[in-house]
Automatic annotation (TrEMBL):
Residues 26-431 form the Amidase domain. This is Aspartyl-tRNA(Asn)/glutamyl-tRNA(Gln) amidotransferase subunit A. Pfam families: Amidase. InterPro entries: Amidase, Amidase_CS, Amidase_dom, AS_sf. Keywords: Transferase. One of its GO terms (molecular function) is transferase activity. It comes from Thalassococcus halodurans. The keyword Lipid metabolism does not apply.
Amino acid sequence: MADWTEMTAADLGRGIAKGEIDPAALCETYLDKIANHPMRDRIYARVTPERARAEAAAASDRAARGARLSPLDGVPVSWKDLFDTAGTATEAGSKLLEGRVPDRDAWVLRNATALGLVCLGKTHMSELAFSGLGLNPVTATSPCVNDEDAVSGGSSSGAAASVAYGLAAAAVGSDTGGSVRVPSAWNDLVGLKTTSGRIPLTGVVPLAAKFDTIGPLCQSVEDAALMLAAIEGQGAMGLPRGSLKGRRFGALQTIVMDDLRDTPAKAYADALDRLRKAGAEIVDVTCPEIQGPMDNAGILYTSEAWGTWGDQITAKGDVMFPPIRERFEGGAGHKASDYVAAWLQLDQVRQVWAQKMAGFDAVLCPTVPNMPPNVDRLMSDNDYYVTENLLTLRNTRVGNLMGLAVVTLPTGTASCGISLMGRADGEESLLAVAVAAERALGE
């Protein structure tokens, strides 16, 4: 019998539909694996077995009656610990929120539950989602599946690890500057950053709401499409099985190719070759205008983060991991006029980007310029922590600043991803292209 925990979410759903997999038995398989896994406490902040079993039992009954609610009805998934879960602590990886127990599920969790997805529990994350590394000595630092002494990427660190280690069929995370895509890339997963404003953030602990987005971390593009549909309450999303012939990609040269480490550079070059061989046209493209918003990212992000959390951090910030607290405090000194000016510039550059990239099906770049850093070195070398954290988020931040839908795909080289940046609100067309790219990269 196949190991269910190694199957994609879509394949599990199909197995349930055919009567080959019982959702209750599937749930127990995941709960048992979680309970006995040596990395459990570094991946899950809290497991919710009672809820999972009740939801799985209901899914089993529906399957037996031929009344399934969606293609993923009965499939077990994990949730980043910033999505409110009724009756279960939601602490966003911070002692600042210790003991916070919401009385209602987040909007996206309600949608997924209504469509039959089974909630396994809450996964660890960077503290208050303000780091791309996934290092969190306050609660737990999740491992990278390719190097357990390295961080898994943040801030959706446990989300990625839960899928990569076979402790969830798929996961839901958030992405403010790269927090879905970085851990997806470092753990050889597909990660989807959705367009800012597409999915309501109701019941989601905020970092910087103007940039916060919600997205799935999965084993395949098909899974990402099904998960997106589920958290939006749609049930299903069809993906055409097209090819890359006739597809036109822009390979971004501005900023994202600077200081690229050797392994990601080679993996990216190899990935471009495979896309070309599959029929894609790839054209180098520049957009020097993005330099301004990239330089002003500190003003844009930290001002909003401090405005959201400043009072609580001032009152009890001593319980936080100092480097994270210091990142928040960096927003305290920015003037309101500088913040407004930075947003005016960003809105203008977004228009320039849209005009320059209008002729491409997607814009390509290496998802992360560096490899997963070592946990012990990050803890002992502050300069290393700062440089690696900033470099880790540099490429992914382009998609957030430009307000795009973006998907990262594995390249076939461990912990190296390639990003396809689509258009704002263009998730459906982007995923259709990504399916063909995924197939080409897997050959």
